[in-house]
Structure formats: C-alpha cells, structure tokens
Write a structure and sequence with these properties.
- This protein is 13% helix and 51% strand.
- It is built from one helix and eight strands, in the order αββββββββ.
- About 7% of the residues have low confidence.
Length: 121
Amino acid sequence: MTKKVWLWLTCLVLLLSFLGCDLPTSPDVAGVPVINYFRATPSQISVGESSILSWDVHVAGLTAHHTLTVVIYFEIGIPEGITVERVGTMEVSPKGTTTYTLTASVGSNSVSKPVTVFVGL
C-alpha cells in the first residue's frame, strides 16, 4: 500500500476510536456442547440397589465469557433437576425404573441425552 492509503486508514481508525466506535472483530462464540458420554452402571438393578450415573461434557471454544450449565433431570412426580459439573459421577437408588436426562447448555445452544435405570424385583 502507498503512504497515502496508510495515512487515510490510520486517520479512519483514530477517528472511529475518538468517536467510541469499535472496529468489527471476529465473534467470541462457543460451540454447541457435546455429551461425550452419559451412562448408568449397571443399567438394571433390583430394589434397594444402586447405579452410578457418569458423564463427560465438552464445549469447543468455551471461554470465561461463556457459562456452561449441566443439569441432570429426573422424574419423581414432577420433573426436578440437579446442576452438576461438566464431568462427574452420581450414585442413584431409584425405587422404580427411572429415566435421567443430562442437559448441557451454553447460551441458546443445548443438547440432551437420556439414560434409563431399570429396577426389577
């Protein structure tokens, strides 16, 4: 570029800065959460026994400007949810067959995955 073009670009940047305008930048966007796995071990138990729910959630591009929310929902008359870390385990002892749903959200991007613990006699 010539000196004249550089001078005009510099003046434009200074003018925009003086006016309080921000130059466009690439958006700081986190991707859609990915549930690497959500499982119950064992997936079939007898009444009084326990199963371990385990999960791992990943989000590409997650920064301090984004909030990842991970919730496990379960039905006991009405839906309830427990906020959990993005990687973890939880022991459950349902009295009857129960479906748990892991939901991971960043802004308007969310993904869910169910897992069922079957309870026999």
